[in-house]
Design a protein that fits this description.
With 224 residues, the chain is of the alpha+beta class. Helices cover 41% and strands 26% of the residues. It contains seven helices and 13 strands.
């Protein structure tokens, strides 16, 4: 919460500093020109990437991701199994996994797992490549991605009012659950034990160990 307040104060301070300058319009025009150039680079990103790439467009740069470690893959698969089964059974929407790309106002991301409520999901097409902001995003930490997951992605998901954000550490077997209150994420829990109950996926509640252990995952699946 303290970090979020500092970020908000910083944004207000930057805006105030620009408005205090006599060349404020020139600064705004320079920013607009830079963002217009970024749009061209972003379009090239769309043209160049293929379904085989694990790539994201973040603040004007294409970020390529390396293959994941086994524990990362296991955690993603275990959680997806539970979440997708529940969402399909209850007809709540659509669950995307790994390479599904969401397109926000400036950046494009491929979350490890994301969930869209039915009112969004019914509009999706079979040949669709870019998707709107989901209602839940899950990112699984790795050495190469955790700075993004806790930094620019956290801020971007928050700014685009994505209701719920889970950060999973597969090494420490920890789940962090954030829920949007107003304009900021609030940490609901950070734990290795107990249950997690989703805000965005109505009625979805699972034991946290089921995300990390196959035997516990099977028990949770049978209890859904």
């Amino acid at each position: 919460m303290e970090t979020q307040l500092l970020t908000k104060d910083m944004s207000s301070r930057i805006l105030s500093e620009i408005l205090d300058r006599p060349d404020a319009y020139l600064i705004v025009e320079a920013v607009k020109a830079a963002l217009d150039k970024e749009k061209e680079i972003r379009q090239k990103f769309y043209n160049d990437i293929t379904e085989d790439d694990k790539a994201e467009f973040i603040n004007g740069e294409m970020v390529m991701h390396s293959p994941v470690m086994m524990r990362h893959n296991q955690v993603g698969g275990l959680l997806f199994t539970l979440l997708n089964f529940y969402v399909v059974r209850e007809q709540l929407g659509y669950v995307g996994y790994e390479k599904l790309m969401i397109s926000l106002t400036r950046n494009d991301y491929e979350p490890d797992i994301c969930f869209f409520r039915q009112e969004k999901a019914v509009q999706f097409k079979q040949d669709q490549l870019l998707f709107p902001a989901p209602d839940l995003i899950v990112e699984i930490l790795s050495n190469s991605t955790q700075a993004y997951d806790r930094g620019v992605k956290f801020k971007d998901y928050q700014a685009h009012k994505i209701e719920e954000y889970w950060i999973i550490d597969p090494k420490d077997q920890t789940l962090e659950q954030y829920h949007l209150f107003g304009e900021e994420y609030q940490l609901i829990l950070k734990s290795t034990v107990g249950d997690v109950k989703s805000f965005a996926v109505e009625g979805f509640q699972i034991p946290i160990p089921a995300i990390f252990d196959a035997a516990e995952n099977l028990k949770a699946f049978q209890s859904l």
